[in-house]
Write a structure and sequence with these properties.
Mean pLDDT is 89; it is low at 1-5. α5 (106-122) links the parallel β2 (99-104) and β3. The protein has one domain (3-263): 3-Layer(aba) Sandwich (Rossmann fold), CATH 3.40.50. The N and C termini lie far apart (39 Å). By secondary structure, the protein is an alpha/beta fold. The chain has helices spanning 3-20, 33-45, 48-72, 87-94, 106-122, 143-147, 170-186, 208-222, 233-242; strands spanning 76-80, 99-104, 131-135, 157-161, 190-196, 247-254, 257-263. It binds S-adenosylmethionine. The site of S-adenosylmethionine (SAM) has 19 residues, from α1. Residues 7, 10-11, 14, 81-85, 104-105, 108, 137-139, 162-164, 167 line the site of S-adenosylmethionine.
């Protein structure tokens, strides 16, 4: 599995976690037999307990991201690398005046669109034009110009991604932040929501050889190597201050994953 297919699989794994952990009503529509088979195989072979704890932690992140978005009360939300998350659908169905723009790579959006249409039909949802799902490669496309005709730069806005940046190299992470910063310089009432696990880069949930084997298997399941971009909180704060984010603060500790809000 290479490139886009590899990336798409991580989105399927996130949907499986949310469905299994009962985070929302709609993730089940995105769970394929491929991801179920892979999960069953590795959890039986290695440690179901370990995978369950990873699942719980990841599901807690989804719940906390959602509650922080609601707490911020934005008029517009932009999700980068939305994958098969159904948060935008859920929030816009409940709040008709909220605009929610979900974005991801073309191959993911192509698969997601018809499944969203199926959910709307089966669940008899009333969806208005404030729910938008569109292509956007955060490393190649300019966020500001891509969203120019969809967003009101004067409205209170929140921009975020969930579970995307751990798959980026440090150089890609920097490009991603520069792209967001360029957007936020024009959209002044915009808050960036980010998450990191900066404090436990070297820690393993299971120590020793078993920990290494489990880590390797997780990589195989997700077909990807995930990483933290910062050794500690101070490094992260320094990085964001250096980028011109004057308001940078910790918003929540979600089971060891730290959530931050930043403004320019
Ligand atoms: C682990 S999934 C998480 C998806 C979703 N945020 C969730 O929580 O379910 C990572 C997502 O990042 C997306 N992604 C990776 N690189 C990207 C890029 N350069 N531009 C936009 N999306 C990207 C992938 O397509 C994938 O959907």
């Amino acid at each position: 599995m290479k490139g886009n297919a590899k990336i798409g699989f991580t989105a399927e794994a996130a949907a499986l976690i949310r469905a299994q952990e009962g985070v929302d009503k709609y993730s089940k529509y995105f769970v394929t037999s491929r991801v179920k088979r892979t999960y069953s195989f590795y959890s039986a072979l290695l440690s179901k307990k370990y995978f369950d704890s990873v699942f719980r932690r990841r599901a807690a992140l989804s719940k906390d991201v959602k509650s922080l978005i609601i707490l911020q009360k934005p008029a517009q939300v932009i999700e980068l690398g939305c994958g098969y998350s159904t948060l935008g659908l859920d929030l816009t169905v409940k709040n008709k005046s909220l605009k929610f723009i979900e974005t991801d790579m073309e191959n993911v959006v192509k698969i997601k669109k018809p499944i969203i249409e199926e959910i709307i039909k089966k669940e008899k949802l009333k969806v208005n034009k404030n729910y938008i799902l569109m292509n956007l490669d955060v490393l190649k496309d300019d966020i500001l110009s891509s969203l120019a005709d969809k967003i009101d730069l004067n409205k209170k806005t929140l921009i975020f991604s969930e579970g995307v940046t751990p798959y980026f190299s440090d150089a890609e992470y920097d490009r991603y932040i520069e792209n967001i910063k360029h957007f936020m310089k024009k959209c002044r009432n915009c808050t960036l929501l980010i998450h990191e696990r900066p404090l436990d880069k070297k820690k393993s949930m299971t120590p020793g050889l078993k920990g290494h084997i489990i880590k390797a298997a997780t990589r195989i399941i997700l077909r990807s190597k995930t990483k933290s971009h910062f050794n500690n909180y101070d490094n992260m704060k320094r990085y964001f201050h250096g980028k011109g984010f004057s308001h940078f603060k910790l918003a929540k500790d979600s089971n060891g994953t730290l959530l931050f809000v930043a403004k320019i």
